[in-house]
Structure formats: structure tokens, C-alpha cells
Amino acid sequence: MSNRILVVDDEPDALELIEFNLKSAGFEVATAMDGESALKKARSLLPELIILDVMLPEIDGLEVCKLLRKDPATARMPIVMLTAKAAEIDRVLGLELGADDYVTKPFSPRELVLRVKGLLRRKGETAEDKTARIQLGDLVIDLPRHEVLVAGKRVELTATEFKLLTVLAQRRGRVQSRDQLLRDVWEYDSLIDTRTVDTHMRRVREKIGKAARHLETVRGVGYRFAEP
């Protein structure tokens, strides 16, 4: 498996900083400075993960994210969005369009590398000591194959969406707080915006359709996977 990361940013200094820190952490790095080049390289190189700035010339990062999620070849590719600290709307839109995570500028290179490693670990997790196949009504979660089926039809989930659904299904019947989900799914130790969880839950519910009836919102606390 390749450990290549595609970094997309139109600021040469930021691009150089990210590239240096990723290479120091043992990753191969490809770069792009605009949205069109990003799409071409994502489809030709099929990197393990993309770090994608929102503010790009011609095709912005949000549109790139949207197009990558529509393409079956790149639909599951983990995406970390880079957003300006003040641009909250960009963070929300990025998550709604399918980004797995976001980092705000100015950012800590160490934090960014940790986020990348966390996402790749999430993507590569297997079910060695877990139930290999979870079936709840018309919903099937196949952990070794990293596959979700609803009424026999495959549903395309990102690595983060898959882990979120799996964690809730494995703990069915028990309420999981937003903070707990941030720790167990995103591996965040510090408090961040818990709307990240809400945005991903909304996407999961939309994708699994009628099976979303299993996912209950516990007002003021978090979420629960209800027993069939």
C-alpha cells in the first residue's frame, strides 16, 4: 500500500512546510497548487489521503471535495480540509460535502501530521478482535471488507463515516456522547467543535436511507444505535 499524500495549497510557503513535515514523518508527498491539478493528480495517483486547502484558484477546495466524493475511484479517499480560522462556514461546508477532518490556519505542523496518521489508521483498521460482520435488520456492516450494505445494496461511506457507524453499532443500546465519539472516532484529546459529530451523523443518515431509523439522537447528550 502506498503512503503517498497529496497536498493541495496555492501558497508556496504553506505547501513547502506541509511537504517537509510529512516527508519527515515518512510519507511520500505529491503537490498541487490549484483545483484542476488536484483533481487530475487525485485520479491518476490515487493517494492514500488528500490535504486540501479551501481557497484555491479557479476550482476551490470545496468544489474539489464535492467532485472527488462523486467519483467512485476517489469517493472513499480521506480528505483533510485546510480552512482560515475565521471561516467557520467553510469548515461546515467542507464536512457536509464529505471531508473527514479539518485543520484551521495557522496550524501546527505536528497536529496536522497527527491528524493524517489518525485518519490513515482509521482507514486501515481491521476486525481482528471484533465481530467481523454486524447485521442489524436490513443493515450489514462488514468490518474486514470495510463495506456497508442496506437491503443488499452497497453504501459508499468515507473512512470516518464507516468508523462512526461501526462504533455506534458495536455499542448498540448505549448512549454515546459527542465528546466520547470525538475521542473514539476522531481520536481528539482536546475539546473541539462537537458539530463535527453532528455533521457526520447527518451524512451517514442520508447515505444509509431507511436504515437510519436505527440511529437515535439523544437530545443534549449524543447518539444511540437502537436495538432492532
In sequence order, what are the helices and strands, one letter per element? EHEHEHEHEHEEEEHEHHEE
Task: Count the beta strands.
Answer: 12
Structure classification? alpha/beta
What's the helix count? 8
Strand content: 15-25%
> What is the CA–CA distance across the termini?
38 Å
Query: Helical percent range?
Result: 40-55%
CATH superfamily of the largest domain: Response regulator
Low-confidence stretches: none
Output the CATH class name of the largest domain: Alpha Beta
The biggest beta sheet is recorded as: 5 strands, parallel
The CATH topology of the largest domain corresponds to: Rossmann fold
Query: Which descriptor suits the 3D outline?
Result: globular
Computed CA radius of gyration, to the nearest angstrom:
17 Å
Give the SSE layout.
Layout: E1 4-8, H1 12-24, E2 28-32, H2 35-45, E3 49-53, H3 61-70, E4 79-84, H4 88-96, E5 101-105, H5 109-124, E6 133-136, E7 139-142, E8 147-150, E9 153-155, H6 159-170, E10 176-177, H7 178-186, H8 195-208, E11 215-218, E12 222-225
Parallel strand pairs: 1-2, 1-3, 3-4, 4-5
Antiparallel strand pairs: 6-7, 7-8, 8-9, 10-12, 11-12
